[in-house]
Automatic annotation (TrEMBL):
Belongs to the cytochrome P450 family. One of its GO terms (molecular function) is heme binding. It holds the Pfam family p450. Signal peptide: none annotated. This is Cytochrome P450. The lineage of its organism: Eukaryota, Viridiplantae, Streptophyta, Embryophyta, Tracheophyta.
Length: 476
């Protein structure tokens, strides 16, 4: 009797279950998942390296609409675009979308970094980073940043006739970060850090297969060495605090070690400090160096923008002695230069795409994003929307003079509660570097082809090689 009842219930429940599952997947966005595991991963990576990834995505958007599915890096994925999608992504709480990144990124940046956090953990970690990166704290570090830029130019630019901009910009931004975030002075340890970080970032968008001949394997080894070096540095900073050794500069590690809960326990674990030092270094090192390189390329090819930037920067320099460092007030006056940087970020954002993971079935735009699926969006698709930015293919820094873009339309630094905590740091770093470049040097391209590809960050042909000429007494 019991068996008959169970059989009858199965006959009723099973078709209902199949109907629900079928209906659920009928509402999944259109598109193709492609081959198992591989999906469209190789096609997308090839398009990125050919710098045609935006076109690759837009071709599919024209075919399927603004919401469509694909499979990348082994995971079924939904592509979203537009201002509404940006707002949904950046404001969703931790119950809908998690910050879980592709396996390659997660394993290289650590499980407890800000990109992986949601809800209260995200607020706690972001607050810890902002305690060091907020404007009030950064004002104390402008002089140190200025010193690093001057030293870099003396070592790598002055006396040279030709330089490769991107490799030098990476050295500069790394040294600034190492000095200000970690309190790490120049020397062998800092040089080893920059070498290892470059190997780490090379494998961030790769298949997470740890075999000796794979790029990901080299990046994993670099990650372990970086973490060990940072762990040694953390123990040194903790020992100095316990011994109450005075320090003239407050670095990020010391700042995070000093953060306490109400019961005086440590606000962050050692793992959280280490992982967020790595993500801060990776984010700050690559994005700022690439923005500086894009600006050097732009100024070499656009005489009118170059002239306006030089005029603004020389006006600031004329009021200062040559040995006098830039101040917070000087940087605040560089309004046109920052508009140029903002327009550069709009048209060529260093970061191509970002990821989230659906924690439950999500209804969006008339479709269902199934639980466990990945969500991907790109910055450039909204930045080039003519309904938001008229004539989007035209470089026009004055579009920001009268009004700021609508919320969640310019997302080079994220948006809402997901705004990048390093925004002000990157702004100061970029403005100070451009100030010294345009007041001390003139330059022109050494080769005709100054294009770039993405791997996953922009990589320039021959590192963007330029011929430089020093200005006599900076022509001021």
């Amino acid at each position: 009797m019991d068996l008959a009842i169970c059989f009858a219930l199965a006959l009723i429940v099973l078709p209902l279950y199949v109907f629900i599952i079928k209906r659920r997947y009928q509402r999944v966005p259109p598109g193709s998942l492609g081959l198992p595991i591989i999906g469209q991963s190789l096609d997308l990576l090839r398009a990125m390296r050919a710098n045609t990834a935006e076109q690759w995505l837009q071709e599919r958007t024209k075919r399927y609409g603004p919401i469509w599915k694909l499979r990348i890096f082994g995971t079924p994925t939904v592509f979203l675009q537009g201002q509404v999608a940006n707002k949904f992504i950046y404001t969703s709480d931790g119950s809908l979308l998690s910050n879980k990144q592709p396996a390659s990124i997660r394993r290289l940046l650590g499980e407890r970094n800000l990109l992986e956090m949601s809800g209260d953990d995200h607020k706690r970690i972001r607050g810890a980073l902002l305690s060091f990166l907020k404007p009030e704290a950064l004002k104390q570090n402008v002089k140190k940043m200025d010193e690093e830029i001057r030293l870099h130019l003396e070592m790598y630019w002055h006396g040279e006739e030709e330089v490769k901009v991107l490799p030098l910009a990476k050295i500069l931004t790394f040294n600034i970060l190492a000095s200000l975030l970690f309190g790490m002075e120049s020397g062998a340890r800092r040089d080893k850090f920059i070498e290892l970080f470059q190997i780490l970032t090379d494998g961030m968008l790769s298949f997470p297969i740890n075999l000796p001949f794979m790029r990901f394997s080299h990046s994993i080894k670099a990650h372990m060495k970086i973490k060990n070096m940072l762990s040694d540095l953390l123990h040194e900073k903790r020992a100095a605090l316990e011994q109450q050794v005075p320090s003239t500069n407050q670095d990020l590690i010391t700042c995070m070690l000093n953060l306490r809960n109400e019961d005086n326990s440590a606000a962050l674990t050692d793992e959280e400090i280490l992982d967020n030092c790595i993500i801060t270094m990776v984010a700050g090192h690559d994005t700022s160096s690439i923005l500086i390189t894009f600006l050097v390329r732009l100024l070499a090819g656009d005489p009118s923008v170059y002239a306006a930037v030089v005029e603004e920067q020389e006006e600031i320099a004329k009021r200062k002695a040559s040995s006098e460092p830039l101040t917070w007030d000087d940087l605040a006056k560089m309004k046109y230069t920052w508009r140029v940087a903002t327009e550069t970020l709009r048209m060529t954002p260093p970061v191509f795409c970002s990821f989230r993971r659906a924690l439950q079935d999500i209804e969006f735009g008339g479709y269902v994003i199934p639980k466990g699926w990945q969500v991907i969006w790109t910055l450039g698709t909204t930045h080039m929307d003519e309904n938001i930015f008229p004539n989007p293919s035209k470089f026009d820094p004055m579009r920001y003079e009268q009004a700021t873009p609508p919320p969640f339309s310019f997302v080079a630094f994220g948006g809402g509660p997901r705004m990048c905590p390093g925004y002000e740091f990157s702004k100061l770093e970029t403005l100070a570097t451009i100030h010294y470049l345009v007041t001390r040097f003139r330059w022109k391209f050494s080769i005709a082809d100054n294009s770039f590809s993405r791997d996953p960050m922009p990589v320039f042909n021959q590192g963007l090689t330029i011929q430089i000429e020093e200005k006599k007494q900076f022509d001021i």
